[in-house]
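Bench notes, bay 3.
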Amino acid sequence: MAGRIEDYALIGDMQTAALVCRDGSVDWLCLPRFDSHAIFAGLLGTEDHGFWRVGPVYPEGTTPPPADRRRYVGDSLILESEWDTPRGTVRITDFMPPRDGAPQLVRIVEGVSGRVPMRSALRMRFSYGRVVPWVHKVDARTVAVAGPDSVWLDTDADTYGEHLTTYSDFTVSAGERFAFTISWQPSHKEQPPLPDPHGSLEATADFWREWVAHCTYHGPYREAVVRSLITLKALTYAPTGGIVAAPTTSLPEEIGGVRNWDYRYTWLRDAAITLSSLLRTGYREEARAWREWLLRAVAGDPENLQIMYGIAGERELGETELDWLPGYEDSQPVRIGNGAAHQLQLDVYGEVTEALHLAHMTGLARNDYASLLQLKLIRYLETHWDQPDEGIWEVRGPRRHFVHSKVMAWVAVDRTIKLIESGDADGPLERWRELRDEIHRDVCEKGYDAERNTFTQSYGSQELDASLLLIPQMGFLPPDDKRVIGTIEAIQRELSTEDGFVLRYPTAGEDAGVDGLEGDEGAFLACSFWLADDLAMIGRVDEARKLFERLLALRNDLGLLAEEWDARLQRQVGNFPQAFSHVPLIDTALRLTASGAYGG
C-alpha cells in the first residue's frame, strides 16, 4: 500500500517529477514528461504497478522501515534520507538533474557508520502499471523496453532478476558509496550516455543555489516562501514555460471517493496566479517564459480560449478511466486527461488579464501581441460576460451565474482600461468604462444577499463560496465595505471546519451537490490562505497571522502541501504537491510581512 500523501517527497528536473516515500520507495514517476505514462504507478495501486525501493534490508513479511530523518539539502530539490539500523547508519540521496538530454533519476547510497545490508528493488511497469517491459542486459547496463520507451539502469552494484523485478543486494560501509541511475530514452534510439551521478549531484546543487539567489523576499517566512518557490519551479515545464497544477493524477479529495482528477496540465488560472507570485519575488524570467507559452497556446483564437492546455499548449486532453488501477487507498476511478478542458469559465479571462497587467506594471519587456491578446479577450467578454458558466471550481452540474466569474470579468475589463490609460494600447475607453460599471452594478444587485449581508455563490442562490474572498483582493470593493466584511464573516461562520480551515462550498454527501458530484471533500487550502489575506486586509492581523501559521503547520516535514486538508482524518488529500496551495502561501506571507503581522 502507498504511504500517506504527506509521507512523500518531491524531486524533479523541470520536465517531470517523482514522488519518494519515507520508506525509500519511488511510487510515482512519469517519463519523459509530467503528462507521460507512468513507469512507477504504485501510488495509485500496488507494488505490481511499479515502484523502486532502495533501503536497508528488512525481515520478510514485515513492512519496510521509514527513514529516521529526511530533509532537502539546503534550498534545493535534493533529498537526503537516513536510516539508523542495528548495524549502522545509511544515507540515500535522491535527485533528478535539470537536463537538456535524457531524463535521469539518481539515487546515491552512502554509508555513515557501521556496515548496513541494503537492497534495491526495481519493478518497472510501463503504461501506468499495465505493461511488463522486456528487461535485458546490454554490456554492463540493464535496459527495460516496451513499445516506444526504454529505461536504462546503471549502477556499480551487482544486479539480478527475479519475479519480474531487478534486485541489487549489497552492504555499504562507512564512507562507501553506491550509485544507481535510471535514464529514459526512446526505444528506437541508441543507448543514452553513461551517467555521472556524482558530477550530476554537484551540478544540481549549483543549479538550485543559483536559482534561489534571485529571490527578493527576505522576511520572517523566508523558509516557507523559498520552499514554495522551489516547488513552483519544479512544476514548470522548462522547454515551454508551461506550469502544471500538480505532478500527479487521481489523488483523492476524499479518501475512497470519486473526486479524483488529473492535474498534470496547465490551467490558465493556476499558471496566471503562479506567475504573479514569481513576479513579486523576483523571478522575471519564469514570468516571461509563461507569457510566451500563453501567447503560443492561445494563438490567434482567443474566442476559443480553453481553461487549460497541455504543457506544450496541446488542446485535446480527453478524459479516460484506468480500470486496472484500484486507486489510492481504493479511491476510484483513476482518471487521466481532463474533461473540464472545454468548459466555459469566465473567471479565467480575469486571471489571465491580471497576470498580463502585473507583468506590464513590473516592467517585463513589452510584448505587443500580449497587449493585442488582452484587447481581444475583452471584446469577447463584451458579449459573453452575462452568460452562465461552470465557474472557478469546474462544476459538472448545470451552468450558473457564478458571482466570482462576474467579478473576474470586471477585473479583466478594469485592467484593460488601465492598460489603455497608460498609453500602451488603444481601445474604446468610454465604452469599456461603461461595461465595467455595468458588470459591477449587476454583481452588486444580483449576487448580494442584503438580508444576510453577504455575497452568494451565484445569482439567486443561498449557498456561499470561498472564491468570494477574492472580492477585496481584486479591488472590486474596498476591504472596509460592509458587504465585504459581512461576506468574510459569513464564510468563516458557514464554510469553516472545526479546526478553522475553509471549504470551497457546501457539498451534499451521498447526494449530488451544486457541483454535480456525490461525496464530500477536505478544506481547500488556497481558500484558507485567502481568508488569512482578507482578515489582514480588514485589520484583524493577529487573527490572520495565527491562521497563516496554523496553515504552515499542515505542511509535511519537507514543507509540501497537497490541495486539501481532511479535518476528520487529520491528513492531506488531493493531488500533491499542489501549486494552487503554494501560491497563496507566498502571497499571504508577503502581505503579512508588509503589515508587520508576524511574531518575533
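Next record in the batch:
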Amino acid sequence: MLRSLSIKNIALIEDITIGFTGGMNCLTGETGAGKSIIIDSIGALLGSRVKKDIVRTGCRSGSVRGEFVGLTPETAGAVNSVLPGSIDTDAADSAVLVLEREISAGGRHVCRVNGNSVASAALRRIGETLVDIHGQSESRLLVDEQVQLRLLDAFCGDAIKDTLDKYHAALAEYKELNRSLKALSGSPAERARTIDLLSYQIREIDGAQLSPDEEEYLSERSRFLAHAEKIRGLLESALAEAGSDAAETGPGSEGGVGALLGGIRSNTARAAELSDQFKTLSEAAESLYFEFEDFIAQLAEAAGKAEYDPQEAELVSRRLDYLFRLKSKYGETYAEIMKFRDRAAERLAFLTDSEEHAAEISARLGDLSNRLFELAGELSARRTEAGSALSERIMSELRDLEMASTEFRTDVDFFYEPEAGGDAEFGPDGLDRVEFLISPNPGQPLKPLSRIASGGELSRIMLAIKTVQNRSDNVSTLIFDEIDTGISGLAARRIASKLKTVSDLRQVICVTHHAQLAAAADNHIYISKFVKDGNTSTSAELLSGVRRVEEIARLLDGGALTEISLRHARELLQEKSEKK
C-alpha cells in the first residue's frame, strides 16, 4: 500500500507530504484546491505520461516521491525484473519500496526505484502491480467493447490465461507466415529482380575474400607507407647514435653505445677473474652487451625494410576504398557484412524454391488456422461461462448501490467471418465480441451500455466491477477519483458502504465531494489552497475531531456551518464508528 506521498513544485503544490493508512482514505476540499493534482502526481509516480507544464510556474523542476509497504509477490517480481535481486519475493510483505520521479521544466524526466535510476517504462511495469487508478475517464471507457473484453478476461483470471497465451503465440506465427506468403506471391518479374539483386550481392561479398582483421592491417600499412621515408631516416639516426650504421651492425665498432658496452663487459669480466663476488655483475654486463647486439641487428633490419613502395601504396589505397564501398552497402564491420551475406543467401534460397516454400507455408497456415479456430472456441466457451457468473455478481453489487431493478448481462458473441480467400480474420484475443448490456428499468429490453447508461450509472457499474475484481486481483491500492459524481445522497451512502467493504481487502484512496464517503473513511485528508506573497499554493491537512466534523458539515450543507449540518455530521461519524 501507499504509506506516504511527497510532492514538490507540481502545478499549485509547492511542498506537501501526505500520510496514508490501510483501509479507506478520503480526500476532500473545494473545487480547484488540488485534489486532482495529487491523483495526477500519483499517476506520474507510476510511470504515466506527463506534460512539462505540470512543473510549478517559476520552478526549474518538480518531483514526486512515494513510499510503499506491504508489497505483493507480483510487485517484488516486477521490481526484480528491473533491479535483479532487489527484493526477496518470499518476504515482500515486510519490504519497503520507494519510487521517485523528477520532472524538469524542459521536459527531462529522472525516475528512481529505491535510489536506482530507471526508465519510465520500468515505473509503469512496477506501478501496474501497485495501484489501480479509476476516474471519470475510465467510466467513459467502460462503454468500449475492447475494454469490456479485457474486464471479462480479468474476471476469468487463470482459467483463461493459458489458452490465451497459446492463442497469442499461434496468432503471431500465423501473421508471420502470411507475410512470407505475400512475399512469395508477388509478380514473377519482381521476384526475378530480387533474385538477381541477391545473387549479385552474394557474389560481390564472396568475391571480396574478406578476412576479419584485414581492414585494421591495411589501415596500419597505409600509415606506414605514407611515412616510410621519415621512418627510415629516424631508424638510421638511431643506428648512428648507437655507434653503428646499416652496413656495420656489430656493437664492437668504435664509438657510441656499442663501444661503451664493450668496455663495461671487458672491465667487469676482469674484475670477476680477480674476485668471485663480481661474477654476477660480470654476467649481467655480458647479457646486456649481447641484448644490445641483438637490438642493433633488429634496428638495422627494420631500417632496411623502411622503404616506400609506390605500387604497394596504390594497391593498399584501392583495397581500402573497395572495403569502404562494401561497408556503405552491407555493414560497418566484417561481422555485419557476413551477417548480411548469410541473410541474403537464406532469402535467395527461399525465393529460388518459392513454389515449394509457398506450398509448405500454405499447409502450415491451414494447420494454424484450424488451431486458432479451436483455441478461439475454447476462449469463447470460458468467456461465456464466466460472463454469466460476472453478470450475476455485478447485479448483486448493483442492488447494494441503489440499482436493484437493473438487469445486467454480459453478451459473448463468437464472430467468425472468413476473408475473401477463405481464411478467418482472427482478432488479437480471439473471435469473440463482448458487450455489456443493461436495462435500468423493469420491462425495458436489454441494450448496450454505451447507449443508455448515464454518468452516475457508469460510475456505479464500474465500482461494482471493481468490487467483484477486488476478490481476485493482487493490486494492493485502489484509487477512485470522484466516482460519486452525478449520484444522489442515498446512492452515495451505498457507494460509501461498498468502498468500505473493498477497503477490508485493499487500501482505498478516494477523492469525493460527498459527506457520506468522507464520514466512512479511516483517514480523512483535507486539501485546500492559500495565497502567500502573491502565489497560490496547495496544503494538505489530516482531519480529526472538530475539524473533521466541520468539513463533513461543509460537504453536507454546501459550505455553511449550521447546527443542523454539524449535528448531521456527528451522526454520520457516529454511525461509521458503530459499524467498525
